[in-house]
Amino acid sequence: LKPCGVSPWRPLRPASAMIESGKYGGEKLDTIFQSLKKNTQLVKDRRWAGMAYAQCLDAKEVVEWLASQKYCADRSMAVQIGLELQAQDLITHVWGSKKVKFADGTMFFRFTAAGAAVTDEPLAADTYHLVVIGAGVAGISAAGFAASMGVKTLCIEGKRLGGDCTWSGCVPSKALIKTAHTVHAAKEAAQFGIAVTQPRADMKQVKDYVWEAIHTVAKLDEESMVKMGVKMKYGTAKFLDSHTLSLKLQNGEEERIKGKSFILAVGAEPAPPPIKGLESVKYHTYETIFDLEVLPTKMVVVGGGVIGCEMAQAFGRLGASVTIVANKLLPKEPPKVDGILAEQFAEEGVRVLRGRASAVTLAVPSEGSNMQRGNELKLLVTTSGGSEEVECDVLLVASGRRPHTDHMALNLAGVEVDPKTRLIKVTPTLKTTVDHIYAAGDCCTLQQFTHYAGIMGFWATRNVLLPGSGIPQHVIPRVTFTTPEVASVGLSEAEALAAGGVVASLPNHENERAICEKDLKGFTDVYLDKNGYILGATLVCNRAGELLSELTIAMEKKIKFAELSWTNVIHPYPTYSFSTMILASNVQREAFDKSHTGKVSKWFAQFGQS
Questions:
Q1: In whole angstroms, what is the distance from residue 37 CA to residue 31 CA?
Q2: Run of H or E including 299
Q3: Which of 60, 128, 523, 548 is 20 to 30 A from 95 in CA distance terms?
Q4: 243-298, pLDDT tens digit by residue?
Q5: In whole angstroms, what separates CA 604 from the centre of its chain?
Q6: In the sheet that 356-362 helps form, which strands lie side by side, from edge to edge?
Q7: What is the distance between the alpha carbons of residues 168 and 74, in angstroms, rounded to a whole number?
């Protein structure tokens, strides 16, 4: 998830102290090499077997000197350092032969022209078997799996461990939604016979609660990486060639990193739609909205997708007057989902303005306005009937994302991106246009879900390290955490019907638990092929996200929907999942009634006993 104004980074402690970095006792290879160059006592005129060799190093003396340094554990590590410097063409044997390898013995080496160069740029590169760029969910999954396999792994992160999900997406949004639910429950308590004082949200305390959740999850991410033994470096990485990175650290220093293989998990960022005047006003995206300490008086949310719907309802419940601007709510879902959410929003005082935001300007506050001074905006919305202006003191632009792929010099590595979407081009096995470079997560797919990014990271690492290849499963569930929740998997209703499928449906008002909780607007729809297998499903209720997993498993494992009926699997009562069992039982009974066995059984039940 990212906009023009980015939330300040709030690490738990300085990034450099979070996780040990460095390959040789915490020391960079380039620092070691520069120290070696400065030790002029090691460079001498030497003789061997009657031959004279001017100004060169004796490998045995180099090993002895390196082994005496605090970062070098023993002579064996010293030899490894020498071999790495030779492999990077910074030192070479005096005979010019690459077949003669650096060893702990009398043998002469010189600095190469590249190694002897005087430059502010690093010359030696720390080397790793696998370098993962990006420490969001995909990167954590990829690097963690590689480290668990004993592979020398480095993970590079430009901002903060955990990525968008932890800092500006899933975690803060769900924490905010929890506070909004709590306020709304208090407001609605009277219908359940409970008298309460009208609640009021203290936005400063709400923000503190949200950030407490963020920091708690961030700490878990950090502890996980430490436990898995993943080395971390924080900075901005750019390719110099397909095996080498230039890494500018957060303290301004620059390093060289070499990798045998790479996994790109660089995520995506906000891409606001073209709204005239937007660049001239203060607005928010999901990256900054969780920093609000004052509740908006009037809030406009642009975009009817997941973020827009969740935030519009949450801030409305907290007490803001909210208008959401969108042609359709959750456009990926069946049309009746739009109707249910629009009805729910209207009941809660959230206005749905059908149209497209076309321009925004600073507004002159009207007499008696209680909007936040200095923040007043006027948004022009183009509608089917013309246009309309709406005022607000907080504007949330919640539509549009683009892959974060334009800042890494991918072209120097030979990695291609789609010219339209800017997504990194990958095969089904997640390999890019370069054989040893793979990609995972939001930078290479339009299925931008945390759970999918995580499994993509795992499969990318698996395909890099192990023989053969695997393809991430494509039964990808999704959930929007409004009230009611909206959960879907597989084909949409329109796609399923076009493929010859049928819809099995059960409304919420036929589920006893939903009746008890006044959760009556939604439904359970399951789309089936002619053989009874699940093509997809859409659920709308207050437990939709939890209910979806059972259907997802059935799809992934090719289990017929009727196998979830009560003659096969008993579900507890009264629960929301009872609807899944009843609907599966209805499908099973309908098929039975139409079958020859069913007809014979009915005849026997009626006449066979007489």
A1: 10
A2: strand 298-302
A3: 128
A4: 999 999 888 888 899 999 999 999 999 999 999 999 999 999 999 999 999 999 99
A5: 58
A6: 356-362, 377-383, 386-392
A7: 45
* Encoded tokens for 588: 């099973």
Q: What are phi and psi of 450, to 5 degrees?
A: -55, -45
The pLDDT tens digits of the residues spanning 350-373 come to 999 999 999 999 987 666 566 655
358 residue type, one letter: S
- Which DSSP state fits 100? S
563: DSSP letter: G
Q: What is the DSSP letter of 205?
A: H
**Nearest Cα residue to 132 out of 231, 215, 256:** 231
Q: Residue written as tokens 């995506």? A: 268
**Secondary structure of residue 210 in the 3-state scheme:** helix
Q: What is the 3-state secondary structure (H, E, C) of 446-511?
A: CCCCHHHHHHHHHHHHHHHHCCCCCCCCCCCCEEECCCCEEEEEECCHHHHHHCCCEEEEEEHHHC
Q: Which two tokens stand for residue 445?
A: 């797919």
* Pair of tokens at residue 229: 């033994």
Q: What one-letter code names the amino acid at 491?
A: L
CA distance 114 to 91: 9
> Which tokens go with 539?
């659920």
Give the Å distances, CA to CA, from 25 to 224, 431, 518, 543: 22, 33, 62, 51
Please state, in angstroms and rounded to a whole number, the distance separating the CA atoms of residues 522 and 486. 9
Model's pTM, two decimal places? 0.82
DSSP string, 41-71: GG-EEEEETTEEEEEEEEHHHHHHHHHTSTT
CB atoms within 10 A of CB 514: 24
Tell me the residue length of the chain: 610
∠ CA 272-278-279, nearest 5°, is 95
- d(CA 133, CA 235) in angstroms, rounded, equals 10
Residue 290, both tokens = 């969780």
CA atoms within 13 A on the CB side of 469: 11
Q: Respond yes or no on whether the N-terminal peptide bond of residue 477 is cis (omega within 30° of 0).
A: no
Among 188, 130, 118, 180, CA closest to 155: 130
Token representation of residue 604: 């026997």
Backbone angles phi, psi at 388, to 5 degrees: -150, 145
d(CA 506, CA 519): 14
pLDDT value, residue 91: 94
